[in-house]
Amino acid sequence: MTHPGRRDILMGAAALALGSAALALGTTARAAPPETLSPTERLRLYMLMRGALDEQLVVSFIECNYWGIVNAEMTPFYDLVAATFARHRPAHGGGYEVVSFEVEYFIDSATGAVLREWKNPYTGATVLAKHTDSVPVKFIIGPDCEIHFPPPPLIPGTVTSHATQPLRIVGDDVWSTETAVARVPVPGAKPMFYNEKIINHAHLSALAKPGITRAGADVTYVGITSFRPWQEMDKNQPGEMLGLGSGAVGVDPHALPPRWIAATKEHRPQALIDPGVYLDPLWHQP
Q1: Is 18 within 8 Å of 40 (Cβ atoms)?
Q2: From CA 282, how far away is CA 286, in angstroms rounded?
Q3: What is the pLDDT of residues 126-176, one digit of tens each?
Q4: Model's pTM, two decimal places?
């Protein structure tokens, strides 16, 4: 899965004509440090890893394990599996406009089934698992590869940020990293916080192929968050949650994780039949 749920940061871009710059990238970028690439070249690499250079649907996923962390001790919680569907096109003023939609589920680690009840290992109580229904979102990826979400209605005192680090290139390997942070005050309780890092990896030789419109990437996910309200932790319970996972950008819909496909057949079959329908209202919005 900022992420209502996991966050909605698996995204991409639309058409970009580079002319001779694309040819130069294909022959020189392998030996060049990232800081020598032009902004246009950096944006092209980033977008090929995070989405596509056309308006066709891009399908991505992550699978995560979640633990509770108290005094550096890890306690298994559950798994999370999420798929993201996105379209991309040039934005006014440069960069790209993205419309994206995510479907995620908490999964019982032992059975592979969608989590309906969960036994809190710290309190011993069994609680109902509350799955957050995702909604389509529209945002901008700027010419500098920074991500700009529209201002949400925020609780006073909320602090958020979403940053994209410079590309890292070593030989034929390219990494891009995004870091999202949110801190939300809660009256009478400690603040809720969310920290997420997504690292995308691709091969420069694949990104530099002439004429390609999408290349995809392997994804590593790390999230450190407050306990969720539905977990009904004691208000004085110290600790937080750690999420670790992996996935991919730009996969065939039939290659999505089996646990996600099984859950979606039961709970949201339209996302298997035509996931693009969830994007249409925002995509066609003026």
Answers
A1: yes
A2: 8
A3: 999 988 778 899 999 999 999 888 776 667 888 888 899 999 999 999 999
A4: 0.84
